[in-house]
Amino acid sequence: MHQKGHDPIQRGITLVELMIAIAILSILAGIAIPLYNGYVTEGHMASMRTTLNGLRTPLEDYRLENGNYGTVTDLVGIANITGRFDWDPSGDSRAYEYTVSVTGTNSYDVWGIFQANTGIWVRCEDRFSECCDSEIAGSSTPDAACP
């Protein structure tokens, strides 16, 4: 017999069902978030690599016009680099710090760092070399030569 006020059909979800759903979502988030962060890091490295390759052209133009890259010095920041090499970076460069290190009259290193203390960087040595990055070198700073 049916009691007054009780519905014979169960409505809602049980605590066990809720816990299972939360566990599944947690597992999916645990997999997806690191993958997403890896894609973001790769995007920053690709942006810096493109910008640094674009910087090589004004450096070479300067060398062709003057016979060398000028005095040995470190130029940190877009304003300092632009003042000497007439460089206009492409894209949004506010989150990146670029450096040109003239290591000799005919050699240089350039690198970019994405926001301080993130450990994400790209470095290009001289005009003939390939660029390396923080994932290849396994270092948190671009101070050392590429492997």
What does it look like?
The chain is of the alpha+beta class and 147 residues long. It has one domain (15-137). The chain has three helices and five strands. The protein has helices at residues 15-66, 78-85, 134-137; strands at residues 73-76, 96-104, 107-114, 120-125, 131-133. Strands 1-2-3-4-5 form a five-stranded antiparallel beta sheet. A hairpin with a 5-residue loop joins strand 3 and strand 4 (120-125). The longest helix has 52 residues, at 15-66. The model has no long low-confidence stretch (mean pLDDT 84).
Strand content: 15-25%
Helix content: 40-55%
Largest sheet composition: 5 strands, antiparallel
Radius of gyration: 27 Å
Could you give the order of strands across the largest sheet? 1-2-3-4-5
Cα-to-Cα separation, first versus last residue: 82 Å
Number of strands: 5
Characteristic terms for this protein:
147 residues, alpha+beta, 3 helices, 44% helix, 20% strand, rod-shaped
Task: Give the helices and strands, then pairings.
Layout: H1 15-66, E1 73-76, H2 78-85, E2 96-104, E3 107-114, E4 120-125, E5 131-133, H3 134-137
Antiparallel strand pairs: 1-2, 2-3, 3-4, 4-5
Question: Can you give me a brief rundown of this structure?
Answer:
The protein is built from three helices and five strands; from the N terminus they run H-E-H-E-E-E-E-H.
